[in-house]
Amino acid sequence: MKDREKLLKQLNDAFANCDTVFLNNSVTDDIIWEIVGEKKIAGRKDFENSLDRMSHGGPTKIIVNEILSSGNRSVVEGIVEFFVEPGKKRKYAFCDVYIFSETEENKFNELRTYVAQLKHKKK
Fold this sequence. Notes:
The chain is an alpha+beta fold. 25% of the residues lie in helices and 50% in strands. Strands 2-1-6-5-4-3 form a six-stranded mixed beta sheet, with helices on one face. This is SnoaL-like domain-containing protein.
């Protein structure tokens, strides 16, 4: 499982740094990425297009709090920051469920993302 944990950290670093090459090389052709409650991205071409859009305003920082793995499934929980306009960031809690291919080593074929904006508490 240590290899899987290392790969998941690399994947999150790649998302934070908009490393589209690493991310594209980490998915199967039949990838499905569901951002729950928002949209579903199906197939390598849609995945690549989403990554391209992300590189023009994607995350600025990802903090991984916990990684859990069992079999071909892994869950990553953390905090992600995005620029929503110049000079203004928003933080979101996220939980990603990765389902890894059983035939293509170290590639995932499904990703479900749950995300909720963190609100600042007023004092």
